[in-house]
Amino acid sequence: MAAVTAPMPAPNSGPAPSPASGDHPWAAAEKRLNRLVRAVALVEKMGNGLGTLAFTWATVVVLGGFSTDLRQDFWYATAIVFLEAFRVFSRESRSDDQLLFKTTGGVKLKRVVLGSGVLYYLNAVIVVVCFSNALVIITNHYFPLGPNKTLALAALLALVSKLEFSTYIEGVSSSGRNNVFATVFFRCIPIVALVLLAVGIIYLGDLQPGNALLPLMPLFASWIVYNLLVLSLQHYEQKFVQVTKMLCTVIFPLWVAISLVVAFKTLGLLILLSTALLGNIQIPVAIARIVLSSMRLFKVNGHHQGSSNEHLIPALKIFYIMVFFQGISYIMACMLETAFSFLFRRLLAKACGLGEEPEMKSINLYYEHAYDKCMQDGVLSQEDMKLVRFAVDSLSSNSHAQNLAAVRILYSLLKKTETTRSNTGLLVSEVTTSKNSVGTLISMLGWTEPEDQGIRLFAAEVIAKMAGNLRIVGIPGTVQMVSSLLDYDARASEVCINMEVPGYLSPSRIQALPVQVTGNNVLDTPKNFLQCMKNLISIPKEDEEFWMAKDSFPSQALEILEKLAHDLDNCAEISRATGLIAKIIGFMSYTIDTTNIPGPQKQLWTTSSLKLIIKLASTNGEIGMVLQQKISEQPFLLSNLAEILEDSCSSQYQLELVMGIIAKLAVDMEARQEIGSYQVFITKLVNAFLGRDQPSSMRKVAGEALSMLSMGNAKNFSAILEAIGPNFIDMKDMLMFDEYTYVTASLLQNVCALSQEKLSQLGSSKHLSSLLPVVFAKMMNRELEGKKLEALISLASQICKVFPQCFAQELESGLADIVQKLVATLNSSKKPSLEYPRMRRVIIEMTICILESCPHYATVFREKGMLAALFMVERTPSKVEKYRLFSGHVGVVPESGLPLLTLVARAKELVASTTPSP
């Protein structure tokens, strides 16, 4: 089971939900739908109970006790008993139940979209009409139906409706887009059915050819006109063709409906409705129960008036009444389900952010699951039915549709909690507390079969949204699965862009969609009106953005890894992955084969990889050092970074990330040397640092990078100094601003520490001496402390070493206050800090530098208590002070100067001296 950490609230993110309002945004809609499910199940269970009771009553009481006295009621009772037995036995198989008697499928409203959808539906209606009439003709010819013709027609109608002609023809039409044979077959289905029906009517129905063909002429004419119109419009202007097709889709359904009623009267209307409405035989069988029971209920007294058994008539009445109300219960359940389920399912889909009709498949599966659970566990079961629990349980299903629905639901719910600022941690905990749920999601990342790409896509999105709260130590193979998303292939990427996920449009098809007209009048064109009225196509805006921004798996992998890097244990797993760092760095380069990927996607890859690398390079501790080492060892890293810096299309954010990476990697001495060999780095960093028009964030990170590069590296120092040139004076202005104080002081103290001769040759004494008033003023600021104060004291000490005379002159006026500041800071630094470990060292170095230049100031130091402060330092040595920079609790840059105790001894000697030093 994956470990989960509670997410920290983001700053300025608004108030967190209170415990009283801790429900999810979709909770109300979910409860509404669940109540409806319980109500439908309750009514159906009432019918089942009545059916079971009627079955028992009929077998034990009616047939068992009065079999010799029943007459015609014997056959009615037997038919009803067999019908009920058929229902009971079908319940043992879920597929049979859904096919035959399930209430949630009793009425199946087919959503017919405009365009080719109307054509395949009309074809299906024509085929059903012809097939039903053919069955009636053949049956009546060989087996005369007699007085029970109505019941026979109802039975045939129910059976024909279950053949699902509309579904088969829709499949043929879909496959026919790229298949000539399928297209011809699709177009010719209706005419073949009409011809066969005509032949059957002529030869079996004993009708004259003219009378037989007359009812079929409207259907034949509609088929001919529609196809000729579609073919003839291929060479006309696109707008005219679209308007004409839209008008045809309104006119022809009405024409076919009227033709059916005129040609076949009641049967035609019933078949038309059954093709669109009947999902199974629950309603026909319920009607049969009502008809059979009501037919006999009012004739019982007449048929058995002279019976010698006084209990026969009451027994039959009780039986027929139970059967009658059983049928009524099933009809009521179907009506209740039909009237409200679609609305409540749509409201739940909207509350979850699942969008329109294609995405309703996920909610429909949940609805069926909730119904089945109520039927199995009981309406009054205390176990809550939750959408999240359904999605989590469906992850381990063997059904491809349920897997897709599960990841789609989880993705939408996680996105909904983000947009509504709800408690994302609560939802994540619900997902991760289920056994193996996260492991299953991660394993889906390795599903590379074409039919599994939709599941893989949404699984990656779900993990990306939860990755910030996950620890993957207990899930073996996680990093390898995520790494598989980075296996970029130009051909595979082209497949991904054109990938068809069931229920969703691919990015290429979204891009090909016409631009929606957003005028004030929706009646500007018939097309716009029909789109509004019929909801021609529905792609939720959120999913369109999803596909356009996430048309490849590498983006998702980089996002997942970046969020996983929040945890040190996760970083350890990442550091152990073979070849992962190289893959990440490869996406920085524009030279990889990205022929099929648009420019914005390439930019997204570059930015994501930079963000991930700087996140990994910023990791603290020993794991961070390992990651930095692995990153530095990559042969293409620096060339890719240089390429981004020199590219005019690179964004400001990308440039900042590159500079931040340089600053993090420059901690290592060898890395500093290698980075400095690229002249472009020094030039770009100096220009960004000194550029007055650059944003402050970029100037700070550039200054940090320059400071690290100049640390103990004379070659880099020379290059930096040459790049600065006459702009050295600008650094004085930067030192005045608090946001630049630390990076500027750190850079200057590194420059001063490296070469007094070089600075003298460049005539920098005037510039450096002009910095002293600013440095002293900043030092005396009471609000300034920590690493900024450390950097300023170190800078003052280095200036004193390089230009002691200038330093002494500037120091004379404020000596007492500066010494007091040094002593107070030293006394307050009894325990060195990992953030600024050099504080005591730089104070002692400045003390030594001042007293070596001006020995007569020793009296002031003694009066201010420096000697006691030095004794305190001598008594409290610390290993922290052996390093000048830490990564977490691990020292990464060792101190290169004299040991601290040696400096303390020298400082005590100078402070205690009463005579000027020679």
Automatic annotation (TrEMBL):
<dbReference type="InterPro" id="IPR016024">
    <property type="entry name" value="ARM-type_fold"/>
</dbReference>
<feature type="transmembrane region" description="Helical">
    <location>
        <begin position="216"/>
        <end position="234"/>
    </location>
</feature>
<keyword id="KW-0812">Transmembrane</keyword>
<feature type="transmembrane region" description="Helical">
    <location>
        <begin position="181"/>
        <end position="204"/>
    </location>
</feature>
<feature type="region of interest" description="Disordered">
    <location>
        <begin position="1"/>
        <end position="24"/>
    </location>
</feature>
<feature type="compositionally biased region" description="Pro residues">
    <location>
        <begin position="8"/>
        <end position="18"/>
    </location>
</feature>
<protein>
    <submittedName>
        <fullName>Uncharacterized protein</fullName>
    </submittedName>
</protein>
<feature type="transmembrane region" description="Helical">
    <location>
        <begin position="246"/>
        <end position="264"/>
    </location>
</feature>
<keyword id="KW-1133">Transmembrane helix</keyword>
<feature type="transmembrane region" description="Helical">
    <location>
        <begin position="318"/>
        <end position="344"/>
    </location>
</feature>
<feature type="transmembrane region" description="Helical">
    <location>
        <begin position="118"/>
        <end position="138"/>
    </location>
</feature>
<keyword id="KW-0472">Membrane</keyword>
<dbReference type="InterPro" id="IPR011989">
    <property type="entry name" value="ARM-like"/>
</dbReference>
<feature type="transmembrane region" description="Helical">
    <location>
        <begin position="270"/>
        <end position="292"/>
    </location>
</feature>
<feature type="transmembrane region" description="Helical">
    <location>
        <begin position="150"/>
        <end position="169"/>
    </location>
</feature>
<feature type="transmembrane region" description="Helical">
    <location>
        <begin position="48"/>
        <end position="68"/>
    </location>
</feature>
